[in-house]
């Protein structure tokens, strides 16, 4: 899903690389591949892809990740619902 963006340069995501123990949970739980492992430590690969859902910080056993969970998660769910709805509405107009 690389290339997905909310608003550039506004994500509150912060990673303390020194505190990271390299478990890779952030890589596993992030829905937008924001993280990667580099030399046995997490690294932010794509900050602008962060939707601030908080999955990474809730699953980090080293407490090395901070993010102010915001509207990004709700926005992502709404946008996905709209994409699915519009994909099923190929004839145009209302599908009610």
Quick summary of this structure?
The protein has 96 residues and is of the alpha+beta class. It contains 3 helices and 4 strands, in the order βαββαβα. The longest helix has 16 residues, at 72-87.
Ordered list of secondary-structure elements with their pairings:
Layout: E1 14-15, H1 25-29, E2 35-38, E3 41-44, H2 55-59, E4 65-66, H3 72-87
Description:
The chain is of the alpha+beta class. The protein has one domain: Alpha-Beta Plaits. Helix content is about 25%, strand content about 10%. The chain contains three helices and four strands; from the N terminus they run E-H-E-E-H-E-H. It is elongated and about 50 Å long.
| Tally of strands | 4
Which residues form runs of ≥5 with pLDDT under 50?
Answer: 92-96
Strand order of the largest sheet: 1-4
Q: What does the overall shape look like?
A: elongated
Helix percentage range: 25-40%
Number of domains: 1
CATH topology: Alpha-Beta Plaits
Overall average pLDDT = 83
| Helix-strand sequence | EHEEHEH
Straight-line N-to-C gap: 30 Å
Alpha carbon gyration radius: 16 Å
Structural class estimated from helices and strands: alpha+beta
Tell me the β content.
5-15%
Q: What is the class in the CATH system?
A: Alpha Beta
